[in-house]
Design brief:
The complex is a heterodimer of chains A (139) and B (149). In chain A, 66% of the residues lie in helices and 0% in strands. Chain A has 6 helices and no strands. In chain A, helix 2 crosses helix 4. Chain A is globular and about 45 Å long. Chain B is mainly alpha-helical and 149 residues long. Chain B has one domain. Chain B is built from 6 helices and no strands. The two termini of chain B are 21 Å apart. The chains are: A mainly alpha (139), B mainly alpha (149). The interface between A and B is large, with 117 and 116 residues.
């Protein structure tokens, strides 16, 4: 259905615009935030703070809703268990994030800014995802 | 606008960007009933994860990201940012891809959507990738590698 395309397309576009305005497509700025013990750049904290604030309001609204505005039902994660996989995976992700100053969202967004470099990062990231899938025997 | 003591910081642009990211995530949550987690949606789009999300919708979200970035860059005269070299990008990309699948999310899913929901898993995940991110940059700086600016 049309709305199944237009809602994520609109959300993705606003998301990409926000990442770019907030400086998250500039790896030096992201690494500046992660450089806590050096020349620290707090900009990412403002990006995260603004996003979390708006989403906290959205969650308050969501709790009063029986179903989403443009879909049949909510499909939300409901797990609460802290596993070694969650912690180990997140630890690895942080290492990769720190190495190049890129996480998945800015990687895709940067395809429109520095296509060559961003494509290398995105291709390697997808390869990493494929490795996990193959290792789990669900290739 | 600048922040006293942090000449390179861009707090206002950061806040505006953050509010837009929150708005996009809110549209996904309240409109589509889903978490705007980029790593999960991308894995779904490229057939690397099972999900109830329609694959066309996952593609639409992923395509929107560079579209939004493109719209912003056509309106501003900012110079192209410096990226790491190809070998570094490959290593970082591989580690990010493996880590986000094992950890079930990244900065958007855990950091923005999960933290704002006070999800225990997301709070732990975000604290973990922040800590290892800090440590990685500190170590690379200590050995004089990876500087971009």
């Amino acid at each position: 259905m049309m709305r199944d395309i237009l809602v994520p397309l609109g959300a993705g576009t606003i998301f990409g615009a926000g990442l770019t305005i907030g400086g998250m497509t500039d790896p030096a700025r992201v690494r500046g935030f992660l450089d806590l013990f050096g020349n620290w750049d707090p900009t990412l904290a403002f990006v995260m703070g603004g996003a979390v604030l708006v989403m906290a309001l959205a969650w308050m609204l969501q709790r009063k809703m029986l179903r989403p505005f443009l879909a049949e039902s909510f499909s939300l994660p409901d797990r609460n268990d802290i596993t070694p996989r969650l912690v180990g995976g997140s630890a690895l992700f942080g290492v990769g994030w720190g190495i190049a100053g890129l996480c998945p969202g800015p990687g895709f967004a940067a395809l429109a800014i520095v296509p060559g470099e961003a494509a290398i990062f995105v291709a390697a990231m997808l390869a990493g995802m494929l490795i996990v899938r193959l290792a789990e025997g669900r290739g | 606008m600048s922040l006293p003591g942090f000449p390179e910081a861009a707090p206002l642009a950061g806040l505006i960007g953050g509010v837009l990211i929150g708005l996009a995530a809110a549209i996904m949550l309240l409109g589509a009933g889903r978490i705007a987690g980029v790593s999960g949606i991308a894995a779904r789009a490229f057939g690397l994860a099972e999900s109830s999300m329609p694959r066309a919708g996952a593609w639409a979200f992923v395509i929107g990201l560079p579209l939004g970035a493109w719209i912003v860059t056509t309106q501003t005269a900012a110079p192209a940012p410096a990226f790491a070299g190809p070998v570094t990008l490959v290593i970082a990309g591989l580690v990010v891809g493996i880590g986000t699948r094992l950890g079930s999310g990244c900065t958007s899913g855990h950091g923005v959507c999960g933290m704002s929901r006070l999800s225990q898993r997301s709070l732990v995940a975000t604290a973990t990738f922040m800590l290892t991110g800090f440590a990685t940059v500190a170590l690379m700086n200590a050995f004089g590698i990876g500087g971009l600016r």
